[in-house]
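Entry for zinc ion complex. Fields follow.
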Amino acid sequence: MSIWIIPFIAGVLSYILLKNRPRLRNIFMAVCGLFLIGHVVVSRTKPLPPAIGKPIRVLCTTGIAGDLVRNIAGSDVELDVVIRGDMDPHSYELVKGDDEKFSGADLVFASGLMLEHSASMQYVLKNHPNAVLLGNVILAEDPDEVIYVDGQLDPHIWMDPHLWKRCAPLAAQALSKVDPAHGEAFYERAKEYENRLEELDLEIRELFGKLPPHKKYLVTSHDAFNYFVRAYFCADDEKGKWDRRINALQGLAPDDQISPLDIKRIVDFIANNRVAAIFPETNLSTDSLNKVIETARKLGGSVKLSPIPIYGDTLGEAGSGAETYIQMVRHNAAVIYDALSEET
Ligand SMILES: [Zn+2]
């Protein structure tokens, strides 16, 4: 039985028993009312502690955030992911059963920076008492690291492993608050995972160090690779001008209409920078990129469509070889490097 029942019963009793002493009755009822309101406010802002001996329930919005948290939480928590498979995290609206997942979760991790921008997703993230928006924490701590495109936050921070690794201690901290008994293990795993992401970053940096600057131009379906290009295509003195080395048919979310002007913009970028290959994404149609290829070739260009797609907002399905974050980033780096390093 919830503790709120005590001020409620006291209020009812004072109403009945103090009928002949209206002033005292009003004071009693006002005090009981304040207790009730206070309890409601506290219970909305402070989640109940998880049942003793049971693993805490952790919910992650995306597969990429889920993979990060899984590496840190290990088997000490019950972990679930809301947006699975190829679904677009930008536009995902809650479906039947998702509300229960959010209300039953002791802790929620979202990628943040308005990646999950649908109305229903924003509502549950704002109202969950224990939701951590990883990208927003990075924005608050280090605003210069976050990219803006036409005044909008670019949420694709996972495309730079050096930046994404900063989410590991944030996850360990949030997990430890809810489950202090496993705090030490969470921090240890976070440290190990940070080291693995640091190695991944060095490996990719070394790979693209072999690609000459004139071949470092990236064209993709949607604008998900700005952090990748800033990290691996730009010399230190070029980091502020990363946008010269990348172009995409669609904006930060792949739900815009593609116009003939978009096709022309990409064809011009390909011609001006002698781009060797352009890259489809696993969960998006290749129709518009095919139109780009067709138009560019009509104008005498020799650009190719990469036969292997890359991952923008999702991980690969089981058996794809890209089902973890580290595998996915390695896959993308290898596909991009192989296609751009080919002789044209
Ligand atoms: Zn995206």
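NOTE: Residues 42-46 have pLDDT under 50 and may be disordered.
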